[in-house]
Backbone:
């Protein structure tokens, strides 16, 4: 019979999150030998290595990362089914930060799914720039944060923070202006977010590298304001594809503008949330439900 044992998958997740087998032992309430045996059986079932073991600990292989992406939502659904049948709904409050670049048209559906699966959880949300959300998470103001990063510049996990990849998509140049704007060779008018925004810096640096003249014609405080500026014909913006909403906008052809990297959307969670306290369970389930929603 094909398939994976859920408890073996849970051990893989715990080992990957803890960063070492010895640290995962008390979390799984297993002996070192029993935990290692579960991982051995899981790798045997997968037909390939899932963890790279070294003196400094363990980290997932490429195959391990792929299996982890499936394991987290599977475990979240299994835990949700157990809570439902035992009538033990998740309760309490959690603070979630979301970058306003993150799938704006789908944020409503994400929140609806969280409410559907976790109806007793009171959620506080903060929408803002990724750098602001990272700082708020670091300072303990947010329990989880969904931020944007550029694939060309991988984000290193801060001490005590677990970074999970939720989604990635292309960055594009978008405008409502006519193509003659570019063909005439005049400085390109850019509509951007403030200077602290990674896409602001990216757009300017790519144009400067190609020797393309530009001027910053509009600064918006958030993506909603930036979209309004684009529809008003105030300039050209660099956006992730899911943030291009509404009729009247068009993508500029490849070769006309500089190439852009891929945008990654990452979830920041505290590595310290690994005990069996109600708060830890609450945040773990919330994170797994968000990951499951994005895969769905």
Residues:
């Amino acid at each position: 019979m094909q398939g994976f044992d859920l408890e073996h998958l849970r051990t893989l997740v715990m080992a990957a999150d803890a960063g070492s087998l010895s640290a995962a032992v008390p979390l799984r309430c297993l002996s070192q030998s029993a935990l290692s045996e579960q991982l051995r059986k899981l790798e045997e079932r997968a037909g390939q290595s899932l963890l790279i073991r070294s003196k400094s600990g363990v980290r997932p292989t490429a195959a391990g990362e792929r299996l982890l992406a499936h394991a987290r939502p599977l475990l979240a659904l299994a835990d949700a089914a157990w809570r439902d049948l035992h009538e033990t709904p998740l309760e309490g409050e959690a603070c979630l930060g979301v970058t306003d670049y993150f799938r704006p048209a789908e944020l409503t559906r994400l929140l609806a799914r969280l409410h559907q699966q976790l109806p007793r959880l009171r959620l506080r949300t903060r929408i803002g720039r990724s750098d602001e959300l990272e700082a708020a998470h670091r300072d303990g103001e947010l329990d989880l944060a969904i931020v944007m990063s550029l694939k060309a510049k991988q984000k290193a996990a801060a001490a005590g923070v677990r970074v999970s990849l939720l989604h990635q998509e292309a960055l594009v140049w978008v405008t409502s202006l006519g193509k003659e704007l570019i063909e005439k060779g005049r400085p390109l008018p850019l509509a951007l977010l403030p200077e602290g925004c990674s896409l602001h810096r990216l757009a300017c640096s790519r144009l400067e590298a190609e020797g393309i003249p530009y001027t910053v014609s509009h600064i918006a405080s958030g993506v909603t304001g930036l979209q309004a500026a684009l529809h008003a014909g105030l300039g050209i913006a660099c956006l992730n594809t899911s943030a291009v909403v509404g009729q009247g906008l068009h993508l500029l052809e490849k070769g006309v503008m500089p190439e852009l990297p891929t945008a990654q959307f990452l979830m920041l969670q505290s590595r310290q949330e690994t005990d069996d306290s109600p708060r830890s369970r609450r945040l773990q389930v919330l994170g797994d439900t968000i990951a499951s929603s994005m895969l769905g």
